[in-house]
Amino acid sequence: MAILIRDCTAITMGDPLVRRGVSIAIEDGKISKISENPQDFEGTHFDTVLDGKNKLVLPGFVNAHTHLAMVLLRGYSDDRNLQEWLEQEIWPAERKLTEDDVYWASLVGIAEMIRSGTTTFCDMYFFMDAVAQAVKESGLRAVLSYGIIAPQPGEKAQRELSVTEKFLREWHNGAEGRIRVAVGPHAPYTCCDEVWRDARALALQYNTIIHTHLQETLAEVNESFRRYQKSPTERLEALGVFEAPTVAAHGVHLRDSDVATLARRGVGLAHCPTSNLKLGSGIAPVKRYKQMGLRVGIGTDGAASNNNLDMLEELRLAALLAKRDDPTALPAAEALQMATQSGAQILGLEGVGHLAEGAEADIMLVNTSGAHWQPGHNPVSDLVYAAQASDVETVLVAGRIVMKEKEILTFDEERAKANVRALSAKYRKL
Amino acid sequence: MAILIRDCTAITMGDPLVRRGVSIAIEDGKISKISENPQDFEGTHFDTVLDGKNKLVLPGFVNAHTHLAMVLLRGYSDDRNLQEWLEQEIWPAERKLTEDDVYWASLVGIAEMIRSGTTTFCDMYFFMDAVAQAVKESGLRAVLSYGIIAPQPGEKAQRELSVTEKFLREWHNGAEGRIRVAVGPHAPYTCCDEVWRDARALALQYNTIIHTHLQETLAEVNESFRRYQKSPTERLEALGVFEAPTVAAHGVHLRDSDVATLARRGVGLAHCPTSNLKLGSGIAPVKRYKQMGLRVGIGTDGAASNNNLDMLEELRLAALLAKRDDPTALPAAEALQMATQSGAQILGLEGVGHLAEGAEADIMLVNTSGAHWQPGHNPVSDLVYAAQASDVETVLVAGRIVMKEKEILTFDEERAKANVRALSAKYRKL
């Protein structure tokens, strides 16, 4: 299956960042050629040719942290204090979850992500076989983790770890290599030391990453000092956790010494600005973090606290928030880098998040003809500061077209939406 | 011309906020009936019936502060310090502006606004006859002001005021009453006392409002204290300016005593969170302002500093930012109120910004079938936190359909875009 994207403007995330009038050939799931010279593509038979005229072509977004199936709880409860929201609303609702709920909600979340240009996501939730099945069918790329919650050592903790190990055995490197399974201890405050040590061992054994939440709220940091006389980062460092490659979501409240530790260990941060604002957690100072050497990607978090999975909106918010006292902070290209290549790097995905010969063909085509794209002085600025998710028209993952001119080709989106509406009735309050 | 919107879910901005299964009749430019009972609409002949199934119907957004024709400079310069950006980029580019540029750019900006559900906007720029002409043709509602810049008293200042008075005479209450002309002294730091006194007199004489910028940056406040030993608000209050109804944009750096003065005088604030972040001005503490009695609407500012005119994005950002340390601040319905009815109120527009019998028929129909609207627990939350501009399908202003199923009916959008692209060549740097 060879595909040609003909005569487009490409944002490569490499050097040069923008290439005009290029064509891109895709063979065996990877980008085989990028060139301004039409002769470079002669002699190859292309099964599909996508017209790149008035299209911006760029790598698909990497959503570095989400809870996909929480689509079911989008708009279920908003504008409440975090603890009330969790204890009175979200956790009771999640106790009603079934595998079927998670499967259909995952497909709807995947539809939303494809429609907004996301080709890879890093997930943590329950019933992860159902999520993996949805990823397999839809054609996306994903790093999936079962969320381990085990505050006490013992039987329950071991059961949580064995769920993870079973998931690793069955799905790690599955779906033609598009699925990686990560080990997912939910957070320092929900997992005991024993679980953290075992999680580290599992990640090293299976050559994969740890995916967790870290220092999302100030309360969490204060509680850790009270219980352990250490920040959560210090506690995990003392347990040796960061000897396994780790992606930590949020990091709103990292002290400089925490940032230094995480940077030294190569831990990746998944910055989730919408969720952090909406839950009142604060604003992660990512400009400073990056200056201190921390690797930062961008995530939407789940749809219960965002309330969408739109990475274009998320990277824009990251770029804007960083500028609140310095308009030169996090320029457009740097925000885009976080949402693509840096996200892939912190997830340990080689060849993802940029357009280059030999790279994975995870690509979106964006229509630039709308009023909000005029007059078109600078495509990177227009994408980051003015574009809309709905401008994304065609999406490829691993060289396969998963959406063509706004039609999702890999699964029945209408059926998934109808099922989610029906299944959500049991959560409905209004 | 009678129009019926049949069987929709309406967000009224009144009580009850959400009404399901209602129909809305529109006659002579106004809403004549809202009812759940189909019999209430029998006996009326409707020229057009719009199907409200799976549609959310709500009042059009009121963009309380913009510089519409700056669409020409979208993406022209970003991520720079405010003074460099203005002095080295924006002002030199604006010196090349012609009336033709402003006319076509205004039409493209209006297309963008219609497509994102805005039915009223409050503008300040140059060549305002061209903006008024674009408003007249497009069918939108607008409060238009010529931006007076006159730091010194004398001939230039009087010339600026006479441009305003000519514009008032020719366009105030024009376009079947859809256009109001405001008096637009650009800002305290760009207008001398003489101009402020004359602007106040003009506004009172023509029974209209003053539209200005106020305390956008801390530097502006400090400079005012140095020159006048007063904050900008104190200086305008001492000049009697606020005896005329006033809308002030930004207000990022208001001291409590300024807020008290503005609240007592009934001054309206146009909160522009995206522009304030992007230019590094900061975050206006609107939760506190509102608690102190200040009336607050929402504006996008111009496309050179936003870089779009999407009010849905703007009200979402306002809601999210206010929550950064308190998730209960500015709940969804309150943010929506600011972007609709409160915006209309600060502009002095009666019967705009809500759905009620007798109110102006400025209405949008929003498609709720997309993946990002599922499962649909709460339409207000979904609109504020998850919707996209592109979900807006049909827009009416003063009872006239200006966009139907995504087609703009009142002017040739493609021609306007082509002209803007051609005219923008002289500004192009890349």
Largest sheet of chain A: 9 strands, mixed
- Biggest interface and residues each: A-B, 71 and 71 residues
CATH superfamily of the largest domain in chain A: Metal-dependent hydrolases
Radius of gyration of chain A: 21 Å
**Helix content range of the residues of chain A, please?**
25-40%
Tell me, rounded to a whole number, the average pLDDT of chain A. 97
Assembly status? homodimer
* Tally of alpha and pi helices of chain A: 14
Summarize the structure.
By secondary structure, chain A is an alpha/beta fold. Helix content of chain A is 36%, strand content 23%.
Explain this structure to me?
Two copies of one chain form a homodimer. With about 425 residues, chain A is of the alpha/beta class. Chain A contains 14 helices and 18 strands. The first copy, chain A, folds into two domains: about 1-60 and about 355-410, Urease, subunit C, domain 1; about 60-345, Alpha-Beta Barrel (TIM Barrel), CATH 3.20.20.140. In chain A, about 35% of the residues lie in helices and about 25% in strands. In chain A, strands 1, 2, 3, 4, 5, 15, 16, 17 and 18 form a nine-stranded mixed sheet that branches. In chain A, strand 8, helix 4 and strand 9 form a beta-alpha-beta unit. In chain A, helix 2 (about 100-115) runs parallel beside helix 3 (about 130-140), helix 4 packs parallel to helix 5 (about 195-205) and helix 11 (about 310-320) packs across helix 12 (about 330-345). The longest helix of chain A has 17 residues, at about 100-115. Chain A starts with a strand and ends in a 7-residue tail after the last helix. The interface between A and B is large, with 71 and 71 residues.
